[in-house]
C-alpha cells in the first residue's frame, strides 16, 4: 500500500494539533486547579457538576434565608422581652399609685412617667427588622402597625392577621412577623395593652381622685398582668421558631458541605498527576513536531 506525501502531512498535522490540544487542556486544568473546565473535558462529570452547582446554589439561598430569619426573630424576641419588662414596670407604678397618702400632684407625677412608658410601648409595637419591615403588623410589613392619636387618646391597629413566611429548606417555612393585634391585643380588642395603659394614665390624671379609685386601679393592675402574660406567650412561640430555624440552618449547612465534597470529588485536580501529564504532553508535542519536520524532507525533489 502506498502512502502519499499528502497523507504524511495530514497525519503529522493532526498529531501536532492533538498534542497542542492536550497540552492546552492540561495547562488550563493546572491554571484553574480543576479537572473539568469544559463539558468536553468529561461530559458525564460535567453534567453532574452542573446539577450539583444548581442544588448547592438553592441550598446556599436557604442558608442565607435562615440567617435573615434568625435576625428578624431575635429582634422580635428582644422587643417582646423589653415589652414584658415595661409592662412589669407599669404594674409596679400602678401598685405604688395605690398608696393612700399620695396627693393629686404625686399622682400627676406618676402619670408623667406612665405617659413616657406608653410612648416606649408604642415604639416597641412599631419595631422594624434590618430591612425596614415592621415585625408586628402581620403581612402588612410596610404599614405602621400601631397609630396613636394624641388628640383622642386612641390607638388603632393598622396591620393584618397574616404572617410573612420565609422558605428555609425545600419543605420548611418559618414565620418572621407577628400578628400585633394578638400580641398587644386579644381577639376582640386589638390594642388592649395600649388601651389598658391609656386607662391607667387617664385614671392618674383625674382631679379630684374618684371615689372608686382603688377599684379602678385594681382592674388596671389585673389587665396589665394579662397583657404581660400574653406578650410572654408570644415570645415563647418565637423561641420555638428560633430553635426550629437553628436546626434547619445546621442541616442546610451540612447539606452544603456534602455538595462541596461531591463537587470536589468530580472536579478537583490531582496536581501530581497533572504535572506528570503536562511533561508527557510537552514531550509528545515536541516529538510530533520533530517527526513532521522530517516528513517535510521526504520529497523526491530533495533527491534531484
Give a structural overview.
With 304 residues, the protein is mostly helical. The protein has a domain at 80-261: f41 fragment of flagellin, N-terminal domain, CATH 1.20.1330. 67% of the residues lie in helices and 6% in strands. The strands form two sheets. A two-stranded antiparallel ribbon has the order 1-2. It has a two-stranded antiparallel sheet with strand order 3-4. A hairpin with a 4-residue loop joins strand 1 (146-149) and strand 2 (154-157). Helix 1 (5-32) runs antiparallel to helix 7 and helix 2 packs antiparallel against helix 6 (213-267). The longest helix is centred in the first third of the chain and has 55 residues, at 43-97. The two termini are 25 Å apart.
Which features would summarize this protein structure in a list?
mainly alpha, f41 fragment of flagellin, N-terminal domain, 7 helices, about 300 residues, rod-shaped
List the helices and strands and how they pair.
Blueprint: H1 5-32, H2 43-97, H3 104-125, E1 146-149, E2 154-157, E3 165-169, E4 172-175, H4 180-183, H5 192-204, H6 213-267, H7 271-296
Antiparallel strand pairs: 1-2, 3-4
Tell me briefly what this model is.
The protein has helices at 5-32, 43-97, 104-125, 180-183, 192-204, 213-267, 271-296; strands spanning 146-149, 154-157, 165-169, 172-175.
Amino acid at each position: 500500500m502506498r502512502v502519499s506525501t499528502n497523507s504524511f502531512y495530514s497525519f503529522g498535522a493532526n498529531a501536532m494539533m492533538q498534542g497542542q490540544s492536550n497540552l492546552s487542556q492540561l495547562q488550563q486544568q493546572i491554571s484553574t486547579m480543576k479537572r473539568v473546565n469544559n463539558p468536553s473535558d468529561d461530559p458525564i462529570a460535567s453534567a453532574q457538576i452542573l446539577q450539583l452547582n444548581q442544588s448547592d446554589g438553592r441550598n446556599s439561598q436557604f442558608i442565607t434565608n435562615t440567617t435573615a430569619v434568625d435576625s428578624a426573630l431575635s429582634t422580635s424576641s428582644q422587643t417582646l422581652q423589653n415589652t414584658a419588662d415595661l409592662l412589669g414596670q407599669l404594674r409596679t407604678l400602678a401598685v405604688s399609685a395605690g398608696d393612700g397618702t399620695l396627693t393629686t400632684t404625686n399622682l400627676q407625677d406618676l402619670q408623667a412617667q406612665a405617659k413616657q412608658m406608653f410612648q416606649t410601648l408604642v415604639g416597641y409595637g412599631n419595631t422594624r427588622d434590618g430591612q425596614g419591615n415592621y415585625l408586628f403588623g402581620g403581612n402588612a410589613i410596610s404599614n405602621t402597625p400601631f397609630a396613636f392619636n394624641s388628640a383622642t387618646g386612641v390607638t388603632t391597629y393598622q396591620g393584618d392577621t397574616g404572617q410573612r413566611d420565609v422558605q428555609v429548606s425545600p419543605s420548611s417555612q418559618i414565620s418572621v412577623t407577628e400578628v400585633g393585634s394578638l400580641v398587644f391585643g386579644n381577639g376582640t380588642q386589638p390594642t388592649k395593652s395600649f388601651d389598658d395603659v391609656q386607662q391607667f394614665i387617664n385614671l392618674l390624671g383625674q382631679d379630684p381622685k374618684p371615689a372608686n379609685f382603688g377599684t379602678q386601679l385594681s382592674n388596671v393592675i389585673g389587665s396589665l398582668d394579662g397583657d404581660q402574660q400574653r406578650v410572654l406567650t408570644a415570645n415563647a412561640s418565637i423561641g420555638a421558631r428560633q430553635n426550629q430555624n437553628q436546626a434547619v440552618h445546621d442541616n442546610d449547612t451540612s447539606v452544603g458541605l456534602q455538595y462541596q465534597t461531591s463537587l470536589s470529588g468530580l472536579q478537583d485536580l490531582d496536581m501530581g498527576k497533572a504535572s506528570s501529564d503536562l511533561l508527557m504532553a510537552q514531550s509528545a508535542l515536541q516529538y510530533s513536531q520533530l517527526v513532521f519536520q522530517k516528513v517535510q524532507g521526504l520529497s523526491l525533489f530533495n533527491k534531484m
